[in-house]
Amino acid sequence: MQSHEINYQLLGDDIQAVEVELDPGESVIAEAGMMNWMDDGVQFETKMGDGSQPDQGFMGKLFEVGKRALTGESLFMTHFTNRTEAIRRIAFAAPYPGKIVPIDLLEHGGAITCEKGAFLCAAMGTKVSIAFQRRLGAGFFSGEWFIMQRLEGDGKAFLHSGGTIVRKELQGGKIYVDTGCIVGYTDGVTMNIERAGNVGSMLFGGEWLFLAVLEWTGSIYLQTLPFSRLADRIIAHAPSMGGQRTGEGTVLGSVGDLIGGR
After folding, report:
1. What is the pTM of this model?
2. CB 91 within 8 A of CB 17
3. What is the number of other CB atoms lying within 10 angstroms of the CB of residue 213?
4. What does the alpha-carbon distance between residue 33 and residue 11 come to, in Å, rounded to a whole number?
């Protein structure tokens, strides 16, 4: 496997974009709808699959995109190629506030497993597939983590997450993590779901009954603000169906309505 060598620049702080530099003939693949802007001369085409195995045939491609459908991702990916004789640039950004982390797959042994939806873009030649948890308990108690994405190759890939991304190194130990906070982990790290606390801690303390346990040796990437947690807060403080406000800011909201003539 030989991925294209791409240079890049991260733009912004809390709401980031990555600008990829393409030499003549170089390509980058991305999830549909993630492109922000691109220079003239960059051509794009929507294709089945990631293009890492050009000789696999139609049925092979159909099988691969069928597996991607299990993660809830689009069946197609967009391929962007520099068709000029000069350097061209293209930028991608996440669909919600957060950070972008560049992953050198070669540095991580050629592969990383990540949460579904974390993949943003990667150098052409990167294989994007799915990975199943080794133990049924992980899927039974936390269905969103039963099927994950797997990136393989020897080039650069980019993941996005909510809040800030924290990288930790495990050296034969273990760490307990809220399942929604996991962005990805390298081979050598195993994940399982264990029960933590009791019903009282969930009802009165706001903590879950089950936590992800990551152990053994490798790198893990964690996010401080999972999108599901952000969405729950927004829904909880949004106007109800009857038009009544709930949660924090109700009094200030009422004053604002008076000033606004409502």
Report:
1. 0.81
2. yes
3. 16
4. 18
Positive or negative, the CA dihedral 57, 60, 64, 67 is positive
Distant-in-sequence, close-in-space partners of 250: CB < 8 Å, separation ≥ 6: none
Confidence at 142, pLDDT banded by 50, 70, 90 = very low
Residue 178 token pair = 């809220």
Residue keyed to tokens 């050629």: 110
The pLDDT of residue 103 is above 60:
yes
- Residue 10 DSSP SS3: strand
d(CA 111, CA 114): 10
* Encoded tokens for 96: 């919600």
Query: Three-state SS string across 85-154, please?
Result: CCCEEEEEECCCCEEEEEEECCCCCCEEEECCCCEEEEECCCEEEEEECCCHHHHHHCHHHCEEEEEECC
Q: How much is the pLDDT for 139?
A: 47
Closest CA to 36 of 80, 4, 75, 68: 80
Nearest to 193 by CA among 177, 209, 212: 212
CATH 3.30.300.30 fits 7-237, yes or no: no
Buried b (16+ CB within 10 A) or exposed e, 107-139: ebeeebbbbbbbbbbbbbbbbbbbbebeeeebe
CA torsion 29-31-37-41 (nearest 10°) is 30
Q: 85: alpha, beta or left, given left = phi > 0 and alpha = psi -120 to 50? A: alpha
Q: What whole-number distance in Å separates Cα of residue 130 and Cα of residue 69?
A: 10
